[in-house]
Amino acid sequence: MKVRQPFDWDGILAWLGARAIPGVETVDGRVYARGDVRVWFSDEVHTNGDEARVRRLFDLDTDPAAIHATLGRDRMLGPLLRKCPGIRVPGAWDPFELAVRAIVGQQVSVAGARTILGRIAAAHGIRPEVLSEVTVEGMPRKRAETIRTLARAVVAGEIVLGRDDLTRLPGIGPWTSNYIAMRLGDRDAFPAGDLVLRRNAGDLNERELLRRAEKWRPFRAYAAMLLWTKG
To answer: Residue 178: which residues within 8 A CB-CB, separation 6 or more?
Structure first.
């Protein structure tokens, strides 16, 4: 699969590797693996699996030139973009799995979330039909209930991930909703309440950061990735 250059394969692979769910996916060397599916890069992105899922996961349809035109001249983001000109927003293999990742990751370290997700996957799998009927153990009760509520809404067809506003569900606030949106392809989604973003943007409060981010539209998701790489 062709991809517009520059393309930071190593960067997106490192992001996915740090968050790889044990028993579900692995990053070994420069290869992403999920079950029998392999994804690797050599001039182009290659896979023996579902190309549509791979394109979404590795953000292959992005136009780096458009991102550079918008963000490259910004005093804060320009230097970060020059260090990482092929920045991508990691997508999702499965929208529901991503939503569960985001809920589990609320106020938890990346390593801690990975451990919890591995336990969920081993005990139940990460499918809405199953998680709508069980209470996930090993995490705060309210967060576990949020997962079950979301799963039930997805199963009932009341929520379409990537399209509907998730903040109407209890336990899902603006940060979680925006994080899910940006990883499901909304290039302007921006979790402005994120503490690391605010710190790396110069210790701004959320309102100040949102005001600053207006000039980063319509690529605020890529601005978020650049600010996260700074930290």
So the answer is: 189, 190, 191, 192
